[in-house]
Amino acid sequence: MQSSSEINTVSKRAARAAGYSWGIAEEVGKCISSIEMFGIRGVENLNNYFKTIKDIEPEGPKQIEENNKLNDKSLCPIYTGLKLIDDYKSVDKIKTLKFIKLDYPLLLLPFINKLSYLIGKRIQVTIDEINAECNLNTCILADHKIKSLIIKKANTVIITILENEDNFSSKTWNELYEISTETFVEETEQSKQTGAGAGLQDND
Q1: What are phi and psi of 140, to 5 degrees?
Q2: pLDDT tens digits, 53-96
Q3: How is residue 75 annotated by DSSP?
Q4: How would residue 198 be classed by pLDDT, with cut points 50, 70 and 90?
């Protein structure tokens, strides 16, 4: 079994050999090693993609818009992912983005996962009929079958920024808060003078 470090190094070198700059190749190495840790076939998708672009110069979007496509060719998942990260503030404002004809879309997932961390929100991803959710660069939740897939091309990829919301009611929060107050210590004249444990200060 190859280590995460080996996957990172070989993917980085392969990206450089495929024509990407060393800076971009560094990002590719990190992304492929991370996506493999989530059980998604990053190495195989990357290897097949590099074979596809052997005699072609890949392209990504010039700027991120609500609808993104190239007139005569498919979008490169690497350049597209990097552009999403570079323009993360614009992405957060747009909220829902569509990408038409994207090569090897699973390679986009680790970039979106990093994007999720940068904007501090979960991101829903729909690759044709497959759904995934990226969560602050810590996990990728996806249809179980995604782990065995090599997807050559997606007709449509939709990225939706999910607004942060509590998963609990205000009633539950207030009840839990009341329980937490049992750890507070009462303020005394002596504590006022020494600065110890006044009012809402945690006594741990």
Answers
A1: -125, 115
A2: 998 999 999 999 999 999 889 999 999 999 999 999 999 999 99
A3: B
A4: very low
Domain count, the chain: 1
Query: In Å, what is the CA distance from 144 to each residue of 37, 40, 140, 191?
Result: 15, 10, 11, 57
| CA–CA dist 152, 154 (Å, integer) | 7
Residue with tokens 């991120």: 64
152 part of a folded domain? yes
Contacts of 28 (CB under 8 A, 6+ apart): 11, 12, 15, 20, 46, 78
Helices vs. strands in the chain: H and E counts, helices first:
8, 6
User: What residues make up the domain containing 135?
Assistant: 4-161
- Please state the rounded mean pLDDT for residues 161-185: 88
Instruction: Answer whether residue 122 is part of any domain.
Output: yes
